[in-house]
Amino acid sequence: LFLLMQRFTALLRLSGARRITAPHTARLTRLLCVPAGGTVPLSSDPSSVAPPSESDRPWLMRHWKGLLFASVVGAWIYSLVIQNRSRRAEDALEELIHTQMPVNTDELLELRAYNEVSTEAIRSLPARLARRGAAVRTTPAVLLELLEEAVGRQLREAYAIERMLMALPNNADGTVEVAAAVGALCFISNGPVAERLTALHALTADSNGRVGRAQLSSIVESLRLSGQVPVEKQVSVDDEGKNALGLARSWYRVQPVHEFCGDELVARALTTLAASEQIEAADTPTAQATASGADVEEDAVDAAAFLRVLTSAEVCVWGECFLIAERRRAQKKREEAEEYERNPPKWQFWKWGRAPERRDAPTDARHDSV
């Protein structure tokens, strides 16, 4: 009875407070849970009651900051690992294509320097083949024989040239298409780039001077198979876009690697050039021939568009796009330097009114811009 009276008195004291706080609740719980025969402290001071321990909270609530930090860092590291695997897959495919190429860039330059073949000799090959009754298809050996006949001497490193021709699509009898084979030999001409590309255009152009989409794709494919298109232009990592949550799939999934064929390279080049307005709408279809009533292919391109496609960043035959980009960077630096000299800063008062010196860029006939 005495213990019950003590507990009732403690309850009355707690009920007289303005508000019941957490310490009061804890003290009330301890009072009601005192076993029989025990003693109950009668102090009503809230400060004397110990606050709840940190270990009483759930584990997730106690360590949420560390878990959030670890999740962010882990997701970032995982995305780096996935992107590294995608790059390694791309490098592996590039290495595979490089090992399958009949010649590399250095060998192309050596073959051109060793043999000194003129562009006219390359252009005469279709007529020479026609006189031998091989106007459509021929063997690499016959083509090299006629090329030596046109040059007037034996070709050096002819086995490398034959290896390039054997890499082209051939039949069971070993014959290759004449247009593709002669186009693959245009690299050996010692003329400037524009002259070689013009000869390449003349091989496939129709009577209106235009090249159809199929012929253009066939030429690019022959150049690609013979090792005249850089390896890095033939490989691409397919972007799978974003998921429903707006996250890029490349962050958490290895992206597939794709090898381009000739038709895909041409399609990408035409799309990029048309978007940048380097090919007018009237140049891609044969507008003039259509107006004159001639039957022509719808996707044919003229000579200017043909040259832009082959030297574009998507095709980059003979690595010409790298040289064009380098010349553009040098030209931009010269223009910026001239503008700086023409309009110097205000603090360079000694340059005011002084005409800048004009420096002409050195030209190379072998790398004329197209």
UniProtKB/TrEMBL annotation:
The signal peptide stretch is 1-17
Q: Does the keyword Signal apply?
A: yes
Which protein is depicted?
A: Uncharacterized protein
According to the lineage, what is the superkingdom? Answer: Eukaryota
Keywords (A to Z) from UniProt: Signal
Signal is among the record's keywords: yes
